[in-house]
Amino acid sequence: MVLWGAVLGALLAAIVVCLCLPGLLRQRKPQEPPLDKGPVPLLGHAMAFRKNAFEFLKGMWTKHGDVFTVQLGGQYFTFIMDPLSFGPIIKESQKKLDFVKYSQQLVLKVFGYQSVEGDIQMIHLASTKYLMGAGLEVLNTAMLDSLSLVMLGPKGWSPDASCWHEDGLFHFCYNILFKAGYLSLFGYTKDKEQDLLRAEEIFVKFRRFDLLFPRFVYNLLGPREWLEVAQLQHLFHKTLSVKHSLERDSMSTWLCYMLRRLREQGIAPAMQDKFIFMMLWASQGNTGPTSFWALLFLMKHPEAMQAVREEAIQVLGEARLEPKKFFSFKFSALKHTPVLDSVMEETLRLKAAPTLFRVVESDYTLKMASGQEYLLRRGDKVALFPYLSVHMDPEIHPEPTTFKYDRFLNSNGSRKVDFYKAGKKIHHYIMPWGSGVSICPGRFFALSEIKLFVLLMVTYFDLVLVDPDIPVPPCDPDRWGFGISQPSYEVCFRYRLKPLE
Ligand code: HEM
Ligand SMILES: *[C@@H]1O[C@H](CO)[C@@H](O)[C@H](O)[C@H]1NC(C)=O
């Protein structure tokens, strides 16, 4: 037995070595970017990257310059840190730099969804139809109703709401945006009280999944946590299932359209359930955290809060809620809020940190703005991390770590779109939504929801921090690269509906 074990072990080791030899032996060729294989064979820099991608990439950038290839867990990633050289990468054809394959692997692992050809185009088409333009106006109305329901309850304003309440700001924002966003997109039944309870239950599970998510993607969960993730996935597939969804009468046209297309393609119902889970994740994971940062910055910067409130009064008028009433809101106002728009862009600049990936489909010549050319190998990945290379660049955004609510305003009050690096106008001066083929198709709806929520909060409510001196929390280092960052601690605040005069 013991002998067989040893033989088997040796055999396995030999297989592993053979499989990984090409990776281990890889050497930088002429014209290739600097290659950094990292301290550990096979793992490469994976541990440092997972622990804190921001600090890791900062170090590599200093060491190697604007382009470098690092080994992460047996795969090679070439990071490009010069934003003036982003254009060709973002615009490159799918045949050369592919996004689809990368995302297919990820969604299969995370959501169990086996993607079929044309999926991404289908999602983008549905989103252009129903999350922008005229479709967005319908959804805005649904979102206002949902926010009213979630924030005031099914019966509207009650005297209790005018007392001071205390809550964690992150939990408060995430909870409200999640429930309202979920109900608006995934639909109601006839029983609103029951809908609210169900939304709350799903939120609790969602947050659990959300907390495990970064380490799940990186394969770092312990056995118990693996089991928990599997249970959560199963539970989401069940509660969100198409079977239940059809019982709801007000599912958004966005989701209806996509589910119809999947049905027409003959996708099995169980797979459709997984698709719905994926859409829940994409649509609800970032809006709550963004709202948290926006409100926190406003509370920490009274001059910004005052500017936003003045603008809100201008476009919406002074608002007070009467007993048993719901919020009223002029939707055209959403189009006339340059100050709030600047606050949103500044919030996203400081807190949105996605990574963009493409797979190199055939050997590829990367042309940098400087004229320098690099060869990239087929099968490697190209990656951008604009948070570090754009959002935090002091040349593009002076004092990059400081919140300046009017950073994206011209002196005449219009939206500022002119930003420069090395004397050249820079097109991608913030990239919270990704870019090119994979740009977030929900970005217009996302901004509308968050702005709607923030405007309701600043017009109808009084808000104060429990400890006005509490610093803005640092970002949780686990989540660099996963979209909107989350705070490393909770911030307590008090709120009440403004009393009637
Ligand atoms: C502040 C809020 C949001 C942020 C910062 C955000 C950001 C992003 C980013 C960075 C990506 C990936 C881009 C890439 O891989 O290159 C993405 C994808 C996506 N987002 Fe958003 N998003 C937000 C809200 C929403 C909302 C509200 C919806 C829908 C209602 C949505 C729907 C999607 C979908 C469906 C995808 C996948 C698209 C694809 O597979 O090509 N997002 N988002
Ligand atoms: C405001 O200023 C910007 C740049 O300073 C300019 O491009 C824009 O045309 C101005 N808008 C108006 C309405 O004057």
Layout of secondary structure:
Layout lengths: L1 H24 L9 E2 L9 H6 L1 H12 L2 E6 L2 E6 L5 H6 L5 E2 L1 H12 L7 H12 L2 H20 L12 E4 H18 L5 H26 L5 H17 L2 H4 L7 H12 L4 H16 L2 H14 L1 H15 L21 H14 E3 L1 E5 L3 E4 L5 E4 L4 E4 L1 H6 L28 E2 L2 E2 L17 H18 E5 L16 E3 L7 E6 L4
Parallel strand pairs: 1-2, 3-10
Antiparallel strand pairs: 2-3, 4-7, 5-15, 6-14, 7-10, 8-9, 11-12, 13-15
Helix pairs in contact: 6-12, 7-8, 7-18, 8-9, 8-14, 9-10, 10-13, 12-13, 14-15, 14-16, 14-18
Bound molecules: protoporphyrin IX containing FE and 2-acetamido-2-deoxy-beta-D-glucopyranose.
Can you tell me the CATH class of the largest domain?
Answer: Mainly Alpha
Approximate shape: globular
Pairing-aware structural class of the strands and helices?
alpha+beta
Query: Cα distance, first to last residue?
Result: 85 Å
Structural descriptors:
18 helices; alpha+beta; 3-stranded antiparallel β-sheet; binds protoporphyrin IX containing FE; 6-stranded mixed β-sheet; binds 2-acetamido-2-deoxy-beta-D-glucopyranose; 2 domains; 501 residues; Cytochrome p450
Q: Can you offer a commentary on this structure?
A:
This protein is an alpha+beta fold. It folds into 2 domains: 2-115 and 355-384, no CATH class; 119-353 and 399-497, Cytochrome p450 (Orthogonal Bundle). The chain has 18 helices and 15 strands. Strands 1-2-3-10-7-4 form a 6-stranded mixed sheet. α8 (169-186) packs antiparallel against α14 and α14 (287-300) crosses α15 (302-316). The radius of gyration is 24 Å and the shape is globular. The relative contact order is 0.15. The mean pLDDT is 92. Bound molecules: protoporphyrin IX containing FE and 2-acetamido-2-deoxy-beta-D-glucopyranose.
